[in-house]
Amino acid sequence: MIDKTENLRLRPSVSIVSTATENVWEFFLSNTRQVRHLRIRDQRLIHLVTQLNGTSIADLVKEHPDIGSEIAHLFTALVEWCIVEYQSVSKTIFDSTHYRTLNFLSDFIPSYALLSEQRRFRNSKVILIGCGGVGSLLADGIAAIGVGELTLWDPDDVKNNNLNRGLFTRQDVGKSKVRVLADRFEKLYPDLKVTTVTELLEQETQISRHFGKLGSTDLVINAADYPNVDVTSKLIFPTCMNLKIPHIVAGGSWFHRINAAL
Amino acid sequence: MKLQDDYKPYLRDGVDVYVDDQRLIVTFVFLSTRQRLQVKAEQWLIQLLPFFDRVHSIAELSHELPEIKREKLHLFLSYLQSKGLLVDSEWLRQLVFDDEYTSSLQRQLNFMLDILGSPKCVSKAQNKIQCAQVAIFGLGAVGSALFLELLQMGFQNFVLVDEKNLRPDSSDRHTLPLAIDLSLETPTSKVDYYEKCARTLNKNVRIRKEKIKLTTGTELDILLNKVTFVINFADEPYIGYTSIRLSRYCVENDIPMIVGGGFDAHLASMGELIIPKLTPCSDCYNSYFQETLKNWKPIKHAVRDRSKGIGGLKSMSQFSASSVALKVFRYFVNTGCQATENGGRGEFKFRDYSIDYFSVRRNPNCAVCCD
What we know:
- By secondary structure, chain A is α/β, with parallel strands linked by helices.
- Chain A has helices at 43-50, 57-63, 68-80, 87-95, 99-105, 111-122, 133-144, 177-188, 204-214, 229-242, and strands spanning 7-10, 14-18, 24-29, 34-39, 53-56, 84-86, 125-129, 149-153, 193-197, 219-222, 247-249.
- Helix content of chain A is 40%, strand content 19%.
- In chain A, the strands form three sheets. Chain A has a five-stranded parallel sheet with strand order 9-8-7-10-11, with helices on both faces. Chain A has a three-stranded antiparallel sheet with strand order 5-1-6. A three-stranded antiparallel sheet of chain A has the order 2-3-4, with no helix packed on it.
- In chain B, the strands form three sheets. Chain B has a six-stranded mixed sheet with strand order 6-5-4-7-8-9, with helices on both faces. In chain B, strands 1-2-3 form a three-stranded antiparallel sheet, with no helix packed on it.
């Protein structure tokens, strides 16, 4: 819910461009390259938007009582559409080492909800099954966006022929893949809790057993292709469906080297 | 070349075989590249396929066959060999590279065999990769991720150009394979850190470190001495400027170049390959964008310092880096695909998970790349 007394500013990653159509303005959200067109007939309104850098809706309404309802309507919409943001939240973003991620999320999450959504991220649990060429990079990408708990599942040790893909180095050869990643993430992402599983996935019951240990799981990702991704998916799929846990079958498996996600 | 009778044909790993018994069509599917090859063959030849197992020699396979069928078998085997389906089972060991290099690249070499068809061509292409001298300008989130990918492809001679240090927020987007203290109290230069990473991937890597910023005064003749491929991720003052500076030099000196992607407002873009006199150069791109975007003029922004107001995700940087890595790979493997020669840029759109791609052609009036 929008607080009209919060000071607002135009988001730094948003550009405003006039278009060939009279009174139609383009708002370009550059992080995600989304475009929104708005018809704003009153030039005073567009002037207020382009100059916005630390004024609340309440103050704007007070300063321009003759267009007060239009201001309230427009600026409320601009917050909802992630075009302007709370200045207080922008300060939090500025001071955070995760400012890149927070700014990116701000293309989707209105400013008033951003920090609570970030907390939800921090409380979320993800299970990643398969930590090879694709899985290890995936694990790093997931860890970097700030999830709270990541379970890494892979029975294999790093081999020399793993070095042309993924996150492993020569120093890691002979060590457990999940252990290598867990050690690395512990230093890099101190707020992340990492658990590891080194069992070979062979039975559906293994999945439910680990879900039981975790209490709840928000997302499961399958990047395991041994013996092949169809077999591992069949082991993972039923439990996820039963427990209504969203799951992703990752790409890059045998026969699907360069696909994105299925 | 006629195959010897003691030759033991071996249908290589990584190829699935499907047989249509009705129409006598065999489909070979290369699992790495998803390419398919369909062959119509006589039934008795199809029945011999399971025996191309490096156990049975041609003499054993053909000892009961009449002369005419023996000749057909030889022709069939020669054809399969020319398509890279039959290889020596020890072909990887016979390559000219050292064992550690070959074993770390085993998957890639098999992938290349799918594309190139023969161990000899694979060896030649990988040798080009191994001997290339690659300069990378800018080791930000995308440039450093690309550097690691190129190392993993077997490139081992680099010039790394970046004057900056890693920062506490680098963990958000940089790929950091080695433990590092990112605090400001113990600054680590990007080129030092990534040189260290490189040594953990390939002990034979050779790196020249240049802790400088590309400016108008930079002596490119010295900086790019012996360099055979240039990759630009330097976005200060902005990518258009650094790219034009480098592209003019590269076109004049016939050095291929890539302008990377992944910049602010192009967080998951796919980069542009510039092959002198063949593809558009940076000046061509510049005139293309000047024309295309002539009416797109953003209003002056109310926020003056926008530096920490821009977003980005590690996975988007990885996406950009990987798309450039594939372009580099395609260039060196020289698949002859038209896509390596056409100009253009792709942009991954996060919202609908699609890729926008637009083509750019050489500007016939370009003062830099057109005669």
